[in-house]
Write a structure and sequence with these properties.
Blueprint (H helix, E strand, L loop, with lengths): L1 E5 L3 H12 L3 E6 L15 E4 L5 H6 L7 E4 L4 H14 L4 E6 L5 H7 L2 E4 L4 H11 L3 E6 L2 E7 L7 E2 H4 L5 E8 L2 E3 L6 E2 L4 E7 L3 H4 L8
Parallel strand pairs: 1-2, 1-4, 2-3, 4-5, 5-6
Antiparallel strand pairs: 7-8, 8-13, 9-12, 10-11, 10-13
Helix pairs in contact: 1-5
Length: 215
């Protein structure tokens, strides 16, 4: 998969390193070429100096063949402009925005852009979204997130109480066939249900087996 990342800060550098190790074809863009010094020795992609909303820079980074795009600079406006270019102009099928100011959430929803708010797990969260398209993460307090995802096969016909992890993961809402309900401990989860849960950062690895790819 050809993936473009805009922003070579700590998150961007880690993200492209992870993606490169996973075997993806990666390009990273940053307005400051000195930022590329953060890239690890395992990174075998291309680094392009410039702005992520500049068409010439995007095309040099391979936007015409891009399958997934993440804008993770420390500036919301830059991230939104870059992501909108990728999504609306170049029709990249999967675009993720790193969001700092949650007051801008409505702007992203209006533009139809998916996003991840800043957390200690942000680079792993974005990598999962780029490569799998699983879930929406919204920070609510420090290391706690609201996590919306589609239930996979391993969650099918399991009771809510069997999936939940005390003090780490709790299912708050289930949406099935367009209808939503608040589950109780004995409620059964079906594959392809959309689940809204409260989850601590440390629990993501434990619940990953229950996350599906949708219908």
């Amino acid at each position: 998969m050809h993936i473009i990342v805009v922003g070579c800060g700590n998150v961007g550098a880690q993200l492209v390193t992870f993606l490169s190790i996973e075997g993806h074809d990666v390009a990273i863009i940053d307005k400051n070429s000195e930022a590329f010094k953060r890239l690890g020795t395992t990174f075998n992609g291309i680094a392009v100096p410039g702005y992520g909303f500049d068409s010439e820079v995007l095309e040099e980074a391979g936007i015409m063949k891009c399958e997934a795009f993440a804008a993770v600079t420390n500036e919301d406006n830059t991230n939104m402009m870059s992501a909108e270019m990728a999504s609306k102009i170049y029709k990249v099928p999967r675009v993720i925005v790193r969001l700092y100011n949650t007051e801008r959430e409505s702007d992203l929803l209006r533009l139809g852009l998916d996003y991840v708010c800043s957390t200690s797990m942000v680079s792993h969260s974005i990598m999962e979204k780029l490569t799998n398209g699983h879930g929406r993460h919204v920070v609510v307090r420090k290391d706690v997130e609201l996590f919306e995802f589609v239930a996979g096969k391993t969650a099918h016909k399991k009771k809510v109480k069997d999936l939940q992890i005390p003090n780490e993961f709790r299912i708050c809402l289930v949406t099935r066939d367009g209808q939503s309900f608040i589950p109780w401990r004995e409620s059964l989860i079906h594959e392809h249900d959309t689940l809204l849960a409260v989850v601590k950062d440390d629990a993501h690895a434990k619940i990953g087996k229950y996350v599906g790819q949708g219908k």
